[in-house]
Amino acid sequence: MAEQNAAKPQMPLGLAKRGYSGVIQHLAAQDAKSALPDVELESRLIELGFVEGAQVEVLHEGIIGGDPIAVRVQNITIAVRRREAMAIIVA
User: What predicted TM-score, i.e. pTM, was given to this entire model?
Assistant: First the structure.
């Protein structure tokens, strides 16, 4: 599986469209342009289960501007704003 993910380009989860499936590579809170301080955003994302190596899938996009997105992380479904999802780097 690691070889499969190595071939996929890395991108912020906030750019992913419905149906995207990948693995979290790392968090980059400084790139998110969130209203939250970087440390707090990263901490919240980790608490929600957005950790390195976790499987993610974009299940749904909001009607207006595609925001927020519903994401399955492992076996949990979470809604997250695209702005905050920009801090989650996936491949």
Answer: 0.85
